[in-house]
């Protein structure tokens, strides 16, 4: 198997983060991974709202998040384990991820009538 690409934190670009999180499903997946506080298997983040994301789409979303530097992925047998790089990213771009995730949470509350 090919090794997975993970950019060093010095190579992470704000435009890559913004692009990765511009998709609402990807933002929801990232929020789930970053909010868990532990390693998440892909199957644990496959449901967004009331919708199950197809495996092919989930793989694509995980790849975009990984290549943007937002998550680190490790293969364990047939399972892919993901964890957030929020601490590293916040050290480089303080407050960026918190602001983006807060904005998504605000929009989600308005859509749900909250």
Characteristic terms for this protein:
114 residues; alpha+beta; Arc Repressor Mutant, subunit A; three-stranded antiparallel β-sheet; two-stranded antiparallel sheet; 5 helices; 5 strands; 49% helix; DNA-binding transcription factor activity; DNA-binding transcriptional ArsR family regulator
CATH topology heading: Arc Repressor Mutant, subunit A
Oligomer state of the chains in this structure: single chain
CATH architecture: Orthogonal Bundle
> Rg from C-alpha positions?
14 Å
Structural class: alpha+beta
Order of helices and strands: HHEEEHEEHH
How many β-strands, per DSSP? Answer: 5
Share of helix, binned: 40-55%
Averaging pLDDT over every residue, what do you get?
A: 85
* Poorly predicted sequence stretches spanning 5 or more consecutive residues: none
Strand order of the largest sheet: 1-5-4
N/C terminus separation? 45 Å
- Strand content bin: 15-25%
Number of helices: 5
Main sheet summary: 3 strands, antiparallel
State the shape.
globular
CATH superfamily: Winged helix-like DNA-binding domain superfamily/Winged helix DNA-binding domain
CATH class: Mainly Alpha
Number of domains: 1
GO molecular function: DNA binding; DNA-binding transcription factor activity
Organism: Nitrospirillum iridis
Keywords: DNA-binding
Pfam families: HTH_20
Would you write up a description of this structure?
It is a single chain. This protein has 114 residues and is an alpha+beta fold. The chain has a single domain, classed as Arc Repressor Mutant, subunit A, CATH 1.10.10. The chain contains five helices and five strands. The protein has helices at 14-20, 24-36, 55-67, 86-92, 96-111, and strands at residues 40-41, 47-48, 51-52, 71-76, 79-84. The strands form two sheets. A three-stranded antiparallel beta sheet has the order 1-5-4. A hairpin with a 2-residue loop joins strand 4 (71-76) and strand 5. Helix 2 crosses helix 3. The mean pLDDT is 85.
């Amino acid at each position: 198997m090919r090794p997975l690409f993970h950019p060093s934190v010095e190579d992470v670009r704000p435009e890559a983060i913004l692009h990765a999180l511009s998709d609402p499903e990807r933002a929801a997946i990232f929020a789930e991974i970053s909010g868990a506080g532990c390693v998440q298997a892909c199957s644990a983040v496959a449901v967004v709202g009331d919708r199950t994301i197809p495996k092919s789409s989930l793989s694509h979303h995980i790849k975009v998040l990984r290549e943007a530097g937002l998550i680190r992925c490790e293969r364990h047998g047939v399972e892919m384990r993901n964890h957030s790089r929020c601490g590293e990213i916040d050290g480089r771009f303080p407050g960026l991820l918190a602001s983006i995730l807060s904005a998504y949470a605000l929009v989600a509350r308005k859509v749900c009538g909250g």
